[in-house]
Amino acid sequence: MKRPLLVLAVLVFSAGCGGSDEATTQVRAYWLLDGKVWPSAHEVPGSGQTTSAALDALLDGPADDTRQTAIPEGTEVTALEVANDVASVTLSAELSDEALAQVVYTLTQFPDVGTVEIDGQSYSRADFEDQTPSVLVESPLPFEEVTSMLRAEGTANTFEATFSYTIEDDVGALLAENFVTATSGTGTRGTFAFTESFTAPDEGGIVLTVFENSAKDGSRIHEVEIPLAVAP
């Protein structure tokens, strides 16, 4: 099988999100993939205080070795306040640029947070372009359930604002492919959204792969796979 971890990962993800009657809210925590931020879904208790809960989920660390973090183990939040579009945070450890990117991306997912202030320094997502993949898919998130009319959204900073994608089943059979043009690129990050229909496999999940085509030789570069479940 091309991707033997896919089914196991879906099962682990599902087990971590269910099994309780308590009301929950889905938030994103931003881990690292090849040194770049990459989001995953987390269910947190209740419907309020999601900013704090998302940051706590991030500081708890990844649940498995498929995701990495640059945040030092044991880092704690000593203060968090959100006001006037700014999240002011005090943490118990100094953070590298990669770790700062994780914190800033996690907190700025919320509409009432545009910038993050840490130790008197203000940061936005634009400060971490070096820690952001050329194509950042923020929906759907890895292992989420999608329908056969898949909609994807995110940001991209690619040559001439263009990138490509494929949808395959979990043994590698091609179900769909196309290209996307974001609102900007070639040094300026833009947004994108696309919808793609495909014939769902009889069993198993799918993999959405985003990538650029090298201007030098046409080969795939900056390739990232996003495993997904398919609604029955």
Low-confidence stretches: 4-20
Would you list the SSEs in sequence order as H and E? HEEHEEHEEEEEEEEEE
Radius of gyration from the alpha-carbon trace, in angstroms: 18 Å
Helix content: 10-25%
Distance between the termini: 22 Å
Tally of DSSP helical segments: 3
Give the beta-strand count. Answer: 14
Q: Biggest sheet: strands, sense, closure? A: 5 strands, mixed
Mass-distribution shape:
globular
Total domains: 2
Overall pLDDT, averaged?
90
Q: Percent of residues in beta strands?
A: 35-45%
Strand order of the largest sheet: 8-14-13-10-11
Q: Which structural class best describes the helix and strand composition?
A: alpha+beta
Summarize this structure briefly.
The protein is of the alpha+beta class and 232 residues long. The chain is built from three helices and 14 strands. The relative contact order is 0.15.
Can you walk me through this structure?
The structure is a single chain. With 232 residues, the protein is α+β, with helices and mostly antiparallel strands. The chain has two domains: 127 residues, no CATH class; 96 residues, Immunoglobulin-like. The chain is built from three helices and 14 strands. A five-stranded mixed beta sheet has the order 8-14-13-10-11, with no helix packed on it. The protein has a four-stranded mixed beta sheet with strand order 3-4-5-6, covered by helices on one side. It has a three-stranded antiparallel beta sheet with strand order 7-9-12, with no helix packed on it. A hairpin with a 2-residue loop joins strand 5 and strand 6. The relative contact order is 0.15.
